[in-house]
Amino acid sequence: MRRTPRSPLPPRDGVDATRIRLPAEGPWATVLEHLVERLPMLPADRIEAMLRAGEVVGEDGPVGPAAPFVPHASVWFHRDLPTEVPVPFGLDVLHRDEDLVVVDKPHFLATTPRGGHVAQTALVRLRRELGLPDLSPAHRLDRMTAGVVLFVVRPELRGAYQGLFQDRAVRKVYEAIAPHDPAVALPRTVRSRIVKERGVHAARELPGEPNSETRVELLERRGGLGRYRLLPRTGRTHQLRVHLNSLGLPIVGDELYPVVAHRAPDDFTDPLRLLARSLEFTDPVSGRPRRFDSARALEWPSGTHPIR
Description:
The strands form 2 sheets. Strands 5, 6, 7, 8, 9, 10, 11, 12, 13, 14 and 15 form an 11-stranded mixed β-sheet that branches. A hairpin with an 8-residue loop joins strand 10 and strand 11. The model has no long low-confidence stretch (mean pLDDT 94). It is built from 5 helices and 15 strands. It is of the alpha+beta class.
């Protein structure tokens, strides 16, 4: 498999350049013709101006407006940033050394740029605030999930730390607040086949060989709610949310399960009560045991009182 080429453009204000890989074939004579069709959100004259100004770059240097279409070639450029509502919560650094930055991410802040969330992401904030333009994520948390996230300082080490997560060599502990149902026997291990389709907000459980596994334990009860410890063995998209919902215990504040709801961009109330409590692993570079714990606590809904 061909290695993804490194961007010839450095990050701009903490944001990576966008890479476009040209298709294997097509009717386009020039890169300009392809980009005009590929990027309908940008006016054709804006794309041509970017090419004339040398703002679109290939592996061998700037790509001009007359540059021929080359199958499978890659080009990079910096997009104009979208207008974003600032996320009014801090990003706490738990640990920093020459290899790693570990943070305690708040709810509502995306881990990495995607869609309309670019500057208001943990990655871009950290690159700007710490002066680390090559910082990259070893894994990701959903925007609505808070807790421990691991970032890699040096690009040459990213594969080693990402491999820990791909090889399931990280012990991940989460906590959630969800309804308590005495009819649901706990602890238990939930296994199912989860499928997340591109462009569809919620994932689905389908018949077939399980591709996800989570151990669910009850830690405490308050009224009709419980605080749960979740130990995922796999890392499917929305896995913990899907598994608790499948038990009839949807996480408090979940806007996708069991019913998709739409939240205004400036609504930072009623967060998803899901927290990445800790990460534990053997460091692939130093060989030392590592453990990082969130200092955050999930907020119980108002009027919820402990059971005595």
